[in-house]
Amino acid sequence: MQRLLRLLRYLLPYSAQALLAVVLLAAVGLLDAFRLLLIGPVFDRVLNPHSPDTSVSLFKIPHQHRWMTLDHLVPSNFHNPWTMVAFALVASTLLKGICDYAGTYLVNFAGFGMITDLRDDLYQSILRRSARFFHSQTTATLLSTIVNDVERVQFAITAVLAEFLQQFFTFLFTAAVVIDIGGKLAWVLLLFVPFVVASS
């Protein structure tokens, strides 16, 4: 835990980029879940020729007894359910792609900046060592520490962290949508999530 806190100290200069990356990757998960919400209107309204041209409901807002409708999220000149759903699908896909790219870029920017600072400090620390230290440590050990060990930290902070954040928020928002759509049965299915995570 102490080593992790020491590593996080290097993240402080890049905290603004890291926080913005978290927000953008959370938006990726939210937009993924939003596209799931559009499945209901596709079957109930778009593919049903007898459906009226009224507002397209997405979900009920908790504790307010009001429905969130698609009309609030699309331009006001769209009135046909087919047009509203098509626009929402295309717009959410484009927004998801932009947020995914920007979020991953910012995670990598913060991660590579952090690793550069870590390498600089490590290099300076090795240069300040005494001659006895260089006699006791082999060249291979020093090179392994500077190159391989830092590369492992770099991979964990950039690639793994970006993927973890995206999948975490996608799971979180998708679970909320499943609970909203499925009701009590969804809660029962969510009991199996720990077993699925443990087996993977």
As for the number of domains, it is 1
- Helicity level, as a percent range? over 70%
Using the coordinates above, name the CATH class: Mainly Alpha
SSE pattern, N- to C-terminal: HHHEEHHHHH
- Spatial ordering of strands, largest sheet: 1-2
Mean pLDDT: 79
The total beta strand count reads: 2
Q: Treating each run of at least 4 consecutive H or I residues as one helix, how many helices?
A: 8
Return the CATH architecture: Up-down Bundle
Q: Low-confidence parts lasting 5 or more residues at pLDDT below 50? A: none
The computed structural class is mainly alpha
**β-strand amount:** under 5%
Computed Rg:
24 Å
- How many angstroms separate the termini? 25 Å
CATH topology: ABC transporter transmembrane region fold
Give a verbal description of the structure.
This protein is mainly α and 200 residues long. It contains 8 helices and 2 strands; from the N terminus they run αααββααααα. Helix 2 (15-37) packs antiparallel against helix 4, helix 4 runs antiparallel to helix 6 and helix 6 packs antiparallel against helix 7. The chain starts with a helix and ends with a helix.
